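Same chain as my last thread, 291 residues:
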Amino acid sequence: MTKIGLALFVLVILAAGYLYFQKISSPVPRYTRKISFAKMTRYQQEMDRILLSNFEPDQSYASLLIKNGNTFDYAKVYKREQLHPCDCQESTYQEFSDSLMQQPLSGKTHYVYNKEHLLIESRDMNGSHMTSKLNYIRDDYGLIQKLMINNENGKTLTWFVYESDRYYKVTLKDEVPVAYETFYLWDLRSSYDHLGRLIKESTHDSELIYQYLNDEEDVYTKFSYYSLSPKKLVSINEMAWDNNRQMITGKTADLVSTFKYIRHKEDNCKTCSYVYNENDQLMSTTLEACN
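reply #2:
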C-alpha cells in the first residue's frame, strides 16, 4: 500500500469512528420549541423538560423492559405463551357476532411485525376503508422511539422518552406538545418474591395481591384488588390454564361472577377469544390469525 493509500485508509477509519460517535452522542432532536419557555404553561414546561432528556437506554435496559415491562406498549410474554410461538410477519384481528365465527363484524385490525416479532404497524379497517394507521419506529435495541398516528382526526406524533425508572409518552400536534403519560418501571411500590415474580402493587388508596399456582409458573393464577383506609376486598380475578386454553374469571368480593374470558391458542397460530358477561351471555368473539 502506498503512503497516499495508507493515509486515505486511516482518514476513512477516523471519519467512520467520528460519525459513529456523533450518532451515539448526538441523537436527532425530538422537537423544536415553537414558543419561549417563559410563555409556556407549567404543563407545557414539564413536557418540554421531558422531551429534552438526554438519558440513553442501553441494550440491558431495553432487554429488561421488552421482556418484563408489563405495560400496554411492552406486554410481558409468559412462558406459557412461548409453548406455541408464532413468528408470522403479519396477522389480522377480527371480531364476530357469533361463537361459530360465521358472522364477521365490519371492523378488523391488521398487524405487521419486524424480524424480532415486535410490532411496527397496525391498521384499523372498517370494511375496505382504513380508519386509522399506527407506525412504530424502533431503535436498534427494539425500543419504541416514536409512534406516528394517522386517523380521521388528522396526524399526531408521540415520542417515547426513557428514564432509568420510567418512560414517558409525549404527544405532539402540529409539532407542539399537547399531552403526556408516565409509565413507572421497577416501581419501589411493587414487591416481588424470591423468583422475581410480582406479588404486590400498591398505591396510596389501593393494593393488588398476586398469587401463583407453583414455583414453575411465571403468570399469576389469582389477583385480588383491595381499597385501602380501611382495607377492603373489592374484586378477584382468577386465571386457569388447560394446555393452550386460558380462562380468566372476574368476581366481586362476595364471589359473584362479573365476567369470563376464554382464549384458545392453536398450533397454527390461530387464537380464538370469547368474552361472557355476568349472566354467562356471550358478548364478543375474536379471531387472530396469520395472514
